Amino acid sequence: MDVPGFTKQNKPSHLDPFRRAVLRGLAVLLPPLLTIVIFVWVGNTVTDYLLVPMEKAVHGLLVRQFQRDILSAGSLPADQRRKDRVTVGGSAYLRVADDRYVPAEYYQYVLEHQGTRQVPATADNIVRRYVEQKYLPRYIVIPVFLCVFLLMLYLLGKFLAAGVGRFFWMQFERMINRLPLVRSVYSSVKQVTDFMFSEREIEYTRVVAIEYPRKGIWSLGMVTGESMLDIRCAANEPVLSLLIPTSPMPFTGFTMTVKKSETVDLNITIDQAFQFIVSCGVVVPPHQLVEALADRQRGSVPALDSSKEVGSGQEAGGSDSVIR
């Protein structure tokens, strides 16, 4: 029969070892896999929305420039209009399927680098293939694009750092914040990008833990200074000013001044503390996990106990019953 205060435990299933092994495998596989997926997604996004449009624009400009070298049959003397190869101005031209003439240099270059593809039949397509193969191969386009992209980012950053650029950017953000749906997405993305790429205006010195908002509940705090002299005199001991960040967005929080004796210095870096806060406590620094496990094995730190004490139904003179 059921006993008040006791919880019935489920019997272990035969599939539990299999389930634990699968979860362990996922925990090992997902971090590198998700990292690769994110970098591939970023690369594909930059390629689709920046590299390809710029490449098409440059390709179009070069094609229009080289298409001027195409000759029509009507522009040649009457005795040369039916010849497959003519010479005009000291340059050789070849007649193609659309009865126009392209420079022999273009045709020969396309023929030598065609690979498994066939040589285009029309003069315009031959010029396009010539520009693509000679001037826009990927081993040239990608380094040039990266240099141009970095230069654009540098110039944009310098422009926004100036007074005029900052004014225009503020006007742009004010306009975005007036759009009902867009402003919600934009503000969330902006918070993430500001956290990842912006320089921190506050210089944190170290990470501490304090019992807040009450005894027994610990919160992380970033030490920003030694606070004010009047507060130190009132406390009659050294004090610290802390920023208490909030999860999962650590760039928001609140400031407090606490006694130095009530803080516990943590052996973690500022970046590790931010990772812990952003992940809501899921991502713990590895050395903290190892040290905690070693301490528990030595018996210096009691192991976590998820059992429940029975507060009712105890027999007189007996001790508290704990389900293990």
Topology:
Elements: H1 16-66, E1 71-72, E2 85-88, E3 91-95, E4 100-103, H2 104-112, H3 123-134, H4 138-161, H5 163-176, H6 180-197, E5 207-211, E6 218-225, H7 229-235, E7 239-245, E8 253-259, E9 263-265, H8 270-278, H9 286-298
Antiparallel strand pairs: 1-4, 2-3, 3-4, 5-6, 5-9, 6-7, 7-8
Helix pairs in contact: 1-3, 2-3, 4-5
What would you note in describing this structure?
The chain is an alpha+beta fold. The chain has a domain of 92 residues. It has 9 helices and 9 strands. The strands form 2 sheets. A 5-stranded antiparallel beta sheet has the order 8-7-6-5-9. Helix 1 packs across helix 3, helix 2 crosses helix 3 and helix 4 crosses helix 5. The C terminus is likely disordered.
Individual helix count: 9
Distance between the termini: 19 Å
* Helix share, percent: 40-55%
Q: Note the main sheet.
A: 5 strands, antiparallel
